[in-house]
């Protein structure tokens, strides 16, 4: 059984466009003084640089990296291809090519070599795949440091019974002697002075006042004041 061959319209269009662009670049290179095999090499160089820049551009965009350099070389190759197509459309006399165009055609190999080298050897950042196994981090067990025991306070030494100093004996004060017997008549007489003194001063009479008023000796005045108290 033979397989049916189906032509893709996009593929046919790409082949036709590539052939026309190839022919225009060849004609322009031959008119600029590049005869023989060199005229055929120019279209290959321009198309290869265009394809290489496009592939590089797609790779950088997939990796999420800046693609400014790839865009630059893609624009250079596209300008060279479009320029050749426009120049051979009757706008340029191929029998009398200007000098600036001859310079551009002659310098194209060096420019294409530089662009291809930069596109191929530009560093790329490797992307991490989702299927790559992730190594678990080592589990670090906590280290328990034993607490230092607190120092036990030493008991204070108790004083020995012999070392205790004996307390000094407290001397007892002699008791006041009981009041001596005072004649009742003197007590009544002294009570009148005491009542008059309290009425005038508001305070009880003391032994010194009794001694001065009645002319009594000191011990007798003290005993009398004790009776009146």
Descriptive terms for the model:
7 helices; mainly alpha
Structure characterization notes:
This protein has about 230 residues and is mainly alpha-helical. The protein has helices at about 10-30, 35-65, 70-90, 100-120, 185-200, 205-215, 220-229. It is rod-shaped and about 180 Å long.
Question: What topology emerges from the helices and strands here?
Answer:
Blueprint: H1 9-31, H2 37-63, H3 68-91, H4 99-120, H5 184-201, H6 207-214, H7 218-228
Strand and helix order:
HHHHHHH
End-to-end Cα distance, whole Å, is 158 Å
User: Radius of gyration over alpha carbons?
Assistant: 68 Å
Task: Tell me the helix content.
Answer: 55-70%
Instruction: Count every helix, treating DSSP H or I runs of 4 or more residues as helices.
Output: 7
As a percent range, the share of strand residues is: under 5%
Mean pLDDT over the full residue set = 74
Poorly predicted sequence stretches spanning 5 or more consecutive residues: none
Structural class: mainly alpha
The tally of beta strands, per DSSP, is 0
Gross geometry: rod-shaped
Q: Major beta sheet, specifics?
A: none
Summarize the structure.
With 229 residues, this protein is an all-alpha fold.
């Amino acid at each position: 059984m033979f397989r049916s061959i189906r032509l893709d319209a996009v593929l046919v269009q790409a082949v036709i466009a590539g052939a026309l662009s190839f022919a225009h670049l060849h004609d322009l290179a031959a008119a600029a003084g590049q005869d023989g095999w060199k005229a055929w090499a120019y279209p290959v160089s321009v198309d290869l640089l265009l394809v290489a820049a496009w592939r590089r551009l797609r790779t950088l965009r997939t990796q999420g990296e800046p693609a400014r350099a790839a865009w630059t070389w893609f624009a250079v190759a596209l300008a060279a291809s479009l320029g050749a197509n426009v120049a051979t459309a009757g706008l340029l006399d191929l029998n009398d090519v200007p000098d600036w165009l001859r310079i551009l055609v002659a310098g194209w190999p060096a420019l294409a070599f530089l662009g291809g080298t930069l596109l191929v050897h530009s560093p790329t950042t490797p992307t991490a795949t989702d299927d790559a196994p992730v190594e678990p981090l080592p589990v670090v067990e906590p280290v328990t440091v034993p607490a230092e025991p607190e120092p036990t306070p030493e008991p204070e030494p108790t004083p020995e019974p012999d070392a205790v100093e004996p307390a000094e004996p407290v001397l007892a004060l002699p008791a006041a002697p009981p009041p001596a017997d005072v004649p009742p008549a003197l007590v009544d007489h002294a009570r009148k002075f005491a009542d008059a003194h309290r009425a005038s001063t508001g305070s009880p009479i003391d032994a010194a006042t009794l001694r001065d008023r009645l002319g009594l000796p000191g011990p007798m005045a003290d005993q009398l004041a004790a009776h009146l108290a």
